[in-house]
């Protein structure tokens, strides 16, 4: 088949809902889009460990410390599943990682905000992981097999992340006046940055159309954002937390919650590297990466020697 015929056959497979596997023919653009999206997803998981890790030593009880430790460890695992899934596209993990540490690759804007109190940890579980679930449940049906399967595993763990955050927040929201204030203050700081996690408005999303054509995503940024708002408003009301949006209003006609204008200038500023914590996050990750070089070299040398021995024996 010539390229045109291959493209046509590929689109037919996508339209039939088939999974594309690593060894299958795929348009170079499809591969490049997947590498971009999947590697940035993986970077987000790893950087996302920093804001929460900041509170492990200060968790209010042994139980909360154990739960937070388990969650942060899960995020590392999500990063590994996603880097492994991205490597099936013929790229090296080291290059992907160095792309965001020293290059232009992105990670989710949400992780460039500070965690100022322990209530932030509750809100990250409820809102940030809640938003990730809305997105990743869709990605679990992605056309690229390894990405879909990685998200299936990730979603199972995310639901624990969201539940533990929501449970803690409910406790604080019905606790002392100081705890109630801490909880509401954290929601006020994290609400709008969480809506930005879903990406720019559809009208300014250069990648969405192509990703939807190839069923990498099946919903647009705005559609996902809307379903997240609809679900979060109810959850907030259930525990007496206020959503910090004076324009929030239930729309009887559409059956959705209309919400106010997202501060997009903040969004673009943060993803261009000028958010509250961008510099600290990259500095911490570069330090860990550079100080961990000896571990990688030792592991590679061990693997090399082991392979040499096996080749000699065979
Ligand atoms: N943060 C950083 N960059 C963002 C962004 C965000 N919240 N939203 C969009 N962008 C970037 C895009 O990467 C793109 O830049 P690029 O072309 O240089 O990569 C540009 O802004 C335009 O955005 P588009 O809408 O055209 O891009 P996409 O169609 O790729 O949509 C996305 C962006 C929604 C992040 C999509 O890539 C996606 O769903 N990615 C997979 C999921 C993911 O990465 N989630 C991040 C959170 S991980 C997490 O929450 C961990 C959990 O355990 C807490």
Provide the descriptors you would attach to this structure in a database record.
314 residues, mainly alpha, two-stranded antiparallel sheet, 13 helices, 2% strand, binds 3-hydroxybutanoyl-coenzyme A
Describe the fold and architecture.
Strands 1-2 form a two-stranded antiparallel sheet. A hairpin with a 4-residue loop joins strand 1 (249-251) and strand 2. Helix 2 (28-47) packs antiparallel against helix 4 (62-87). 68% of the residues lie in helices and 2% in strands. It has helices at residues 3-15, 28-47, 49-53, 62-87, 93-102, 118-139, 145-173, 177-196, 208-213, 221-238, 264-274, 278-291, 293-313, and strands at residues 249-251, 256-258. The chain is mostly helical. The site of 3-hydroxybutanoyl-coenzyme A has 29 residues, from helix 2, helix 4, helix 6 and helix 9.
Note the gap between the termini.
40 Å
| E-strand count | 2
Class computed from helices, strands and strand pairing: mainly alpha
Task: Report helical residue fraction.
Answer: 55-70%
The largest β sheet comes out as: 2 strands, antiparallel
**Bound heterogens, unique:** 3-hydroxybutanoyl-coenzyme A
Shape, per Cα inertia axes: globular
Provide the spatial order of strands within the biggest beta sheet. 1-2
Low-confidence stretches are none
